[in-house]
Design brief:
Layout lengths: L1 E6 L6 H4 L2 H8 L4 E6 L12 E3 L7 E3 L1 H12 L6 E11 L2 H7 L4 E6 L7 H6 L3 E4 L9 H12 L32 E2 L2 E2 L9 H19 L1 H6 L2
Parallel strand pairs: 1-2, 1-6, 5-6, 5-7
Antiparallel strand pairs: 3-4, 8-9
């Protein structure tokens, strides 16, 4: 998979993409993550990428020209499955969408800033708008990082245990069951006996039951979505 990220602040991704699972995925050449500084595509001598909004109002707006220049340059070398704008009013991202995006080959992520991008970018240059939640961030970089991590970990070969991602929360519309590790007893707190029984059938049943209980208690709307 190839992920190209258009951003005003490439350095924000340094710590995230150079450690842990994302780094290992890149080292294995299972994913290529490329950062593109939007200012490099500005034709303005000051390399500005934003301007005041027509009609007035507080805040600046990201201009269409540098965004178009960057996307056009990238598309001249690669055919993209999706060109995604990370926006608080986009389609709400979830595990089902993560599964779908993880099977794509080439993706562009556009990180917004200020009061957003010129509406013509949304109308003509992108293919999808994605929101990671009903709240507003200072910029799209954190959303792009979360989006990237959520799909890259699903690519076959990225995780050490191929079945690990299948038991994550929100797969099958359920939250994950409780998990335990050593020691078996700590300050009087015990690990459930069933997990130490060696009876795989009963253990799997316990895990499913616990997932159902946890989902009903914490996120009952997930069960309603499945009806």
């Amino acid at each position: 998979m190839k992920i190209d990220i258009i951003t005003l602040f490439p350095a924000m991704f340094d710590g995230i993409f150079n450690h842990s699972i994302l780094k290992r995925a890149q080292d294995k050449e299972l994913v290529s993550i490329n950062l593109h500084d939007l200012r490099a595509y500005s034709n303005n001598k000051y390399k500005s990428v934003d301007d005041y909004a027509f009609g007035g109002g507080a805040g600046m707006v990201m201009m269409i020209e540098p965004i178009d220049n960057c996307i056009t340059a990238l598309k001249s070398k690669t055919d993209y499955d999706e060109i995604i704008y990370l926006s608080p009013d986009g389609e709400l991202f979830n595990q089902s969408l993560a599964n779908q995006f993880s099977s794509l080959k080439n993706i562009i992520l556009l990180c917004g800033h200020y009061k957003g991008v010129d509406e013509r970018v949304r109308q003509h240059l992108i293919t999808r708008e994605i929101s990671i939640g009903d709240y507003v961030l200072s910029g799209g970089e954190l959303a792009a990082a979360a989006f990237t991590d959520s799909i890259v970990r699903l690519i076959p070969g990225v995780l050490g245990d191929e079945t690990s991602a299948l038991s994550d929360s929100f797969q099958d519309q359920l939250l994950s069951p409780p998990v335990y590790t050593r020691p078996r007893e700590y300050k009087g707190m015990q690990v459930p006996d069933i997990l130490l029984s060696g009876n795989d059938k009963e253990i799997q049943k316990w895990k499913y039951d616990q997932s159902m209980i946890r989902t009903k208690e914490r996120r009952p709307e997930l069960l309603m979505e499945d009806e």
